[in-house]
Hints:
The complex is a heterodimer of chains A (about 110) and B (about 110). Chain A is mainly β and about 110 residues long.
Amino acid sequence: xxxxxxxxxxxxxxxxxxxxxxxxxxxxxxxxxxxxxxxxxxxxxxxxxxxxxxxxxxxxxxxxxxxxxxxxxxxxxxxxxxxxxxxxxxxxxxxxxxxxxxxxxxxxxxxxx
Amino acid sequence: xxxxxxxxxxxxxxxxxxxxxxxxxxxxxxxxxxxxxxxxxxxxxxxxxxxxxxxxxxxxxxxxxxxxxxxxxxxxxxxxxxxxxxxxxxxxxxxxxxxxxxxxxxxxxxx
Lengths: 113, 111
């Protein structure tokens, strides 16, 4: 029940295209859903996050869509650029419970020029 | 403003040995969490320290232990190393309410 399942494992997108990564969770106590971006040799960096009281959050080219009833959320990267090539992780946590993050397995995104 | 600093960046140890990894949190942060990231996997929570005490622990054996110092810096100790302990060890600092900042990690290789 603590798992967060992420798909696809890898993704190749042309420059200018839309990248979509999906995650699903089981624990309905989760109330914070961040997405992290990780480049080789670096730690994860927070990209964007959402709480379950909203269905969508947009920051620049990055959008999170959240479906509470389906227990699913997704990351959309609009106008994907080669510099977006990285590994993306979804995560979930319970705010106020130390903030321990449960991560998905990761998606390796390659944006071709 | 320095972010989270981890040392060393890389480390090679032999099975059965012991290792200590170090973390200095971001300025203003008083909570330190440690994660293990195996190759090709998402990070897994090891434990969190706040006010020099272990606040929560993930599903890791007692060979994994930690410490937090009065200046909020932290150490992760792993005893009796196994090949399966080879991973990237990430430190993340935060305020008690959350909002993690991750370091670049220590790459541990056990041979």
